[in-house]
Amino acid sequence: MSVKMTPPVGKNEYIDVIFEDLTHDGAGVAKVNGYPIFVAQALPEEHATIKIIKVKKNFAFGRLIELHKKSPYRQEAPCTVYKQCGGCQLQHLSYEGQLKAKEKQVRDVMRRIGGLEDVLIHPVLGMEKPWEYRNKAQVPIGDREGGLVAGFYRQGTHEIINMEKCLIQIEANDVLIQAVKAICEKYGVQAYREEQHKGTLRHVMARYGQVTGEIMLVFVTRTEDLPQQQQIIDEIVAQFPNVKSIVQNVNTKRTNVIFGDVTKILYGSEYIYDCIGDIKFAISARSFYQVNPIQTKVLYDKALEYAALSGQEEVIDAYCGIGTISLFLAQKAKKVYGVEIVPEAIEDAKRNAALNGMTNVEFAVGEAETVIPNWYKQGIRADVMVVDPPRKGCDDSLLATIIDMKPKRVVYVSCNPATLARDLRILEDGGFKTREIQPVDMFPQTMHCEAVAVLESV
Ligand SMILES: C[S@@+](CC[C@H](N)C(=O)[O-])C[C@H]1O[C@@H](n2cnc3c(N)ncnc32)[C@H](O)[C@@H]1O
Fold first, then answer.
1. Model's pTM, two decimal places?
2. How far is the CA of 95 from the centre of ligand 1 (A)?
3. What is the pLDDT along the chain (458 residues), one digit of tens a residue?
4. ipTM of the complex model
5. What architecture is the 100-128+292-457 domain classified under in CATH?
6. Domain limits, CATH 2.40.50.1070, in the chain
7. Which residues have C-beta within 8 Å of that of residue 2, sequence separation ≥ 6?
8. Which element (helix H / strand E) includes 369?
9. Which ligand 1 atom sits closest to the C-alpha of 287?
């Protein structure tokens, strides 16, 4: 017989609470008789009066009404559009507080989801200057009173708010996007209007090579043509000589997905270059490239250290993107095999290997969970397996193959501690032991948390 529980709070009720924790999206968590209430902008240890705004069977949402005791880590968020934007969730928490919160997040999920009580978890490696770090800006374009707006969607809506400066964005991208907006306005380019599925310009993306200074600009349009294309390009290139590639991506669909299937080069090269450490990379418009170049080096150095290569090992790099980690590893390995699902990224990866004179790498296009089991059947064995999956983590059949293959070490790079913990549990049950976990702060001011773990076959 199931017992129906009545939530201990009611809608519109005002109550006093003490916050204990943060959710994975940065809201404060308070509990009433074990029943959790989520409140945006609240921090652990804070005492507050809140108003209940939504009640569900197992949890509720509240709004901060009055803070009675503030967290010692609370600070004034420096960004003027912080509350409307939603791109950052932690600007009201000092950077020291953010690093502590992320370390706690990793510890909690390792215990709760992974059942890993005794694993060594290091403090988060943070940034000296945790601002202006993003090398990629991707902004929706709208129109208002005859002009264009470029910025962000107001939280929970598709209303575009204009933003001239994003505090986590590398300044060069902000400056370029403001200029592109003015140039497009001058030549009468219309913004895409979602409700009517009319107009031209949907998004503008700028990607900056931190070391080379090269910039790629991408226009995402609903239409095949970008009106006054040549004049627009000429003005951009005259004002910004470091723009080395201008690309148009055509997305004709009614969709929230940003990119369409067709990409054409309007000016310059199909890629820009950047360097991480001693390795040079060509990056094309649709390829994944880490957004925080300073911390990427920290992360990859740690992955390389955990791989503990002597020069004799065969290594598989699953989810390899444009071969960034693969080429880092190839400096110290006998042979590296990279696998990635996006064909353009694998073309970039091959070009990158040639660019750096590396001949001990081989890349394959496909799902890691299909390609690697096939390699295993063909007799390929890795001494070290590196995985860097998207947020949903590794597919079960890939984990099963890793368990069968029994590499000496697995280096797991993760952008989602919850799926990392889940997958570590599966690998531990299959005969591996997690030796240590190093969280690296790739995304200051946000709740996103990256970590690299090393496991050994026991
Ligand atoms: C977090 S990124 C890591 C990329 C690369 N290791 C890096 O650091 O730049 C994850 C990559 O996995 C790719 N991917 C997603 N699902 C995949 C799958 N099932 N098999 C192989 N690659 C996949 C994505 O296209 C993306 O390039």
1. 0.92
2. 29
3. 455 678 999 999 999 999 999 998 899 999 999 999 999 999 999 999 999 999 999 999 999 999 999 999 999 999 999 988 888 999 999 999 999 999 999 999 999 999 999 899 999 999 999 999 999 999 999 988 778 999 888 888 888 888 889 999 999 999 999 999 999 999 999 999 988 999 999 999 999 999 999 999 999 999 999 999 999 999 999 999 999 999 999 999 999 899 999 999 999 999 999 999 999 999 999 888 999 999 999 999 999 999 999 999 999 999 999 999 999 999 999 999 999 999 989 999 999 999 999 999 999 999 999 999 999 999 999 999 999 999 999 999 999 999 999 999 999 999 999 999 999 999 999 999 999 999 999 999 999 999 999 999 99
4. 0.99
5. 3-Layer(aba) Sandwich (3.40)
6. 136-276
7. none
8. helix 368-377
9. 27
- Which residue in this structure is represented by tokens 């031209």? 200
For ligand 1, the distance from its centroid to the CA atom of residue 400, given in whole angstroms, is 19
Domain with CATH 3.40.50.150 in the chain: 100-128+292-457
Considering the chain, tell me which residue range(s) the CATH 2.40.50.140 domain(s) occupy: 14-69
Query: How is residue 258 annotated by DSSP?
Result: S
Question: Cβ neighbours of residue 42 under 8 Å, at least 6 residues apart?
Answer: 19, 27, 28, 30, 48, 50, 64
Question: Which residue numbers belong to the known binding site?
Answer: 290, 319, 340, 388
Q: The domain 14-69 belongs to what CATH superfamily?
A: Nucleic acid-binding proteins (2.40.50.140)
Q: Ligand 1 mean position to 288 CA, how many Å?
A: 7
The answer to whether the CB of 345 is under 6 A from ligand 1 is: yes
What does each C-alpha distance from 114 to 109, 110, 216, 406, 434 come to in angstroms? 7, 5, 41, 20, 11
Class of domain 136-276: mainly beta
Does any ligand 1 atom lie closer than 6 A to the CB of residue 341? yes
* Local structure of 52: helix, strand or coil: strand
Closest ligand 1 atom to the C-alpha of 317? 6
